[in-house]
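Q: My labmate handed me this sequence with no annotations at all. I'd like to see what the chain might look like in three dimensions before we decide whether it's worth expressing. Could you predict it?
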Amino acid sequence: MYNLKISAVALLACILLLPAIAIAQLTNCTTLPSRDVATSIRDLRPSDIKAVMAMGDSITTGFGVRGAANESYGISFSMGGDSGASTLANFFLAYNPNLRGFSKGTYPAEVCYGANCPSIRYYPAQDVNNAAKSGSMVSDMVSKQVTYLIRQVNMNPDIDVKNDWKVLTIMIGMNDLCASCMFDLPYLSADEYENNLMATLERVRASMPRTFVNLVAGFNISQAYDLSLTMGRCENVSRPLFVQCDCLFKPENGRIRENIDASITQFNQRAQNVATYYQRKAYDNFAVVVQPFAMDTHISELPGKFLSRSDCFHPSTHGQAAMATALWNNMLTPSAEKKTSIDMDDTPICPTADTLLYTY
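A: Here is what I predict for the chain of 360 residues:
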């Protein structure tokens, strides 16, 4: 019985430590030789990145990772800077200890929904360059988030806006679809989505040169409903919180789930159109790349630990870490070889002296 107790404790410790394993593996990679900083974005390496930035919604704020009423910015897949967290920011930090912009900590959530959020409040000491807000729609990004981000980066004395290489990760659009089914609002059209992306990126390009932009493809979010059906504890968790996309979890809303998934497919295609536009421009100091790891991910086929135990909808610590690893690996892989789905067992790629942040 004593040995069984020890084994149970050890197993629990392993489960809790899993999200930290990826960052530990990356820090054990071979040290790269020093080299001159890239002068063209087509020669960009992980060690060249001096600042990270993000725009988005509740996935990027780490909503629900540590309690349904909290946001864990420090664990956010793209921006988290908490010690030991497996995040894109910490992966870059392993290759440039002078990295700036990552967010830290956990604090009470603030939810913003389009017209219901006339003024977005930020906490620069914790958010830093993470402009995402839970509940945000694409219109919030183009009107508010990008304004905060440009101001924040320009005010940081440790960032040379013109000369430092920066990575910006954008993942947004799902709240527009959720709001339309919950509040009987019209769906954001694919045209509007593409136009808003273009308007945002043009402001970024004009104000913050030397930026590599990740456009993260959207999940097929209806499958959160399918996964929740296999998790008894989720039966009554998802519905009360409107920020969760409540309408997805009503059994009778099968047609709504189909419509949302069709719209996400269109959004992902429009994101690719935007990326193609910038690829054809071939700027030396600005690039936009779709990172497709979520595009073919079947949430309903992932382990239950991918979702937060607090709300059964947002990624858990494990989910955020898996997304970070998938994003990092996508960035270090040419387009034709990028994975389009998440494998929870994947580990971060160890870059070599020749590894690029691929723009093609």
